[in-house]
Amino acid sequence: MDLSTINPAILLASLMIASTPILLAAIGELVAEKSGVLNLGVEGMMITGAICGFIAAVETGSPTMGFLAAAVGGAVLSMTFGILTQFFLSNQVATGLALTLFGLGLSSLMGQSYVGLKPPPVGDINFGPLADIPFLGRVLFQHDAMVYVSILIVAAVWAFLKFTRAGLILRAVGESHGAAHALGYKVVAVRLAAIAFGGACAGLGGAYLSLVRVPQWTEGMTAGAGWIALAIVVFGSWKPWRVLIGAYLFGGVTVLQLNLQAAGVEVPVEYLSMSPYLITILVLVIMSSGRGRAALNAPASLGRTFHASS
Amino acid sequence: MIRLEKRPQPSKAWSYATPLLAVLLTMVAGGALFAILGKDPLLAIRTIFWEPLFGEFAWYYRGQLLIKAGPLVLIAIGLSLGFRAGIWNIGAEGQYIMGAIFGAAVGLAFYPMEARWLIFPLMIIAGAFGGFVWAMIPALLKTKFNTNEILVSLLLVYVAEQFLASMALGLLRNPEGSGFPGSRNLQQYPAAANGELIAGTGLHWGGVAALIAVILAYILLNRHMLGFQIRVTGESPRAARFAGVKPNLLVVVCMGISGGLAGLAGLFEVAGPAGQISIDFNSGYGFTAIIVAFLGRLHPVGILLAGLLLALTYIGGEAAQANLGLPAAAIQAFQGMLLFFLLAVDVLTNFRVRIGKGEMA
Lengths: 310, 361
Prior knowledge:
The structure holds two protein chains of two kinds.
Chain A: H1 8-34, H2 42-60, H3 63-86, H4 92-110, H5 136-140, H6 145-163, H7 165-175, H8 177-182, H9 187-213, H10 225-235, H11 240-263, H12 269-289, H13 293-296
Helix pairs in contact in A: 1-6, 1-9, 1-10, 1-11, 2-3, 2-4, 2-9, 2-10, 3-4, 3-9, 6-7, 10-11, 10-12, 11-12
Chain B: E1 2-6, H1 12-36, H2 41-49, H3 51-54, H4 58-84, H5 92-110, H6 116-145, H7 149-169, H8 205-223, H9 225-235, H10 237-242, H11 247-271, H12 285-295, H13 300-324, H14 328-345, H15 347-350, E2 351-355
Helix pairs in contact in B: 1-2, 1-14, 2-13, 4-8, 4-9, 4-11, 4-12, 4-13, 5-6, 5-7, 5-11, 5-12, 6-7, 6-11, 8-9, 8-11, 8-13, 12-13, 12-14, 13-14
């Protein structure tokens, strides 16, 4: 075992890469949950985004097209969930599970002839002299565009929810759909938009996995990332910046255990691979045990079906 | 304009008709999917649903039917109890794995003793216990710390998969397997093998256990206080508290039963059709069982029928893979689609569809 091989600058830099897929999926799910919709299909939307993005990137040779296709793919798939829960008034938990099961099947079906291919490389953004700053340059300024886009999305979601009228309406719908409906807001339309945004973000997160992080297509490659994103929304108590912290903490654990595996720690690989999931569970326990403080911040209408009775 | 009007009571007729309608719609949509893949849709549907039962090789496929349906029904029965009460154990796949590991470990510990009367029952107990313990983690975290049981039970699936890999490569590896991963084959160890009970039918102890579970669940739900409490909690948690239901106890009981049954399914699989603990031992029964539970409308008899149908799609899928070159993943998408359609048409059970402008309420 040789821990000195672990370089802190590279560790922190790869932390940002490892966190980005989960951050993207989590911030999208946060918006959906803020509107009162519990979409458990994040995993399914992520993996569909991963394959849509991969196919588009390989076929066009452009990673940008890949990410666009992934966002569209995730959003389209999320609309199945939207239509079922909003128009057919189905149970959100069951429908979300169906979305995940269907997404896993659909993606491996779509990805059949793409196993083993290499996607076009995603280049880093050139920050010029900033990238040459010792330590910080490696950690902060040598990444591809999506890392920064994901942080911008978090900032945008934060500003949208806090400062805009539309954000206020979205939160109102999530807190009390009955009251929002009585005020004349279109509950179903707001929720559909939020679900589509969540789907697009999850799709982007999935494509980040297949185009940058791995970069390859394998069946079931998200390996629970969507579920961890759901847990991180709870961890962040539905606040955008805390979701960012949660995702980076999680990314840190993942990268650290991978580094420990590489450094040859005497713990079997399987137990190190378990650690991200176990730590997510531990964090969930801590967050939910504090006399329901986290629960108090949950949108009041979360997961409840809306049916205007008039 | 189309409006939905809530029924005062869910429609009995529709609650029977919707699963059938969903299956029909899935066949149509699935046919379209197969057509996109360049296969003859009618032939594909026929290969999946007809050939395994009545075709040329039916003698082989019919046996497979019970092998696949057994674990699905066993797991789904357990899940349905929780789902009825609004307790979402979606980590049955993990409990299935843990049941298999515990049960197989007990069997292997006795190798090469020949006392089947002792070893096999002990394995069954260990299998159920393994699943039970794994389900107790989300249950106790839920009752003690109010942690979301959906997320915890699901995350534990990934933990269980890693644990399975470590067992197959480490502790339970076959010492005579010349270094290959995977345990000894339990089918070649008569005292621990879960073989066919009636030759050619595919019926093993797992199928028997599934039938017993169906009957017991039926009695539990209709004749027993616990069943009443489960149903009341599902209909109205507030009313349930007035009726003296202890919500925490109910969470533990429902999760415990579903975990135990999933563990049993895992044990019967590892000692029977699978034969050994290997890295890729689990094949998604724990997730498909969720579809089975909903398709069976959370009713024991319904689940039995739904389990047979889903088992048929597995087998038919294999047949279509062999004969038509239909990709294996197509069946997974097909099963997911089935759940979608089921949830969509379920609206007819609880709502009336009114066309035209209704009177204002």
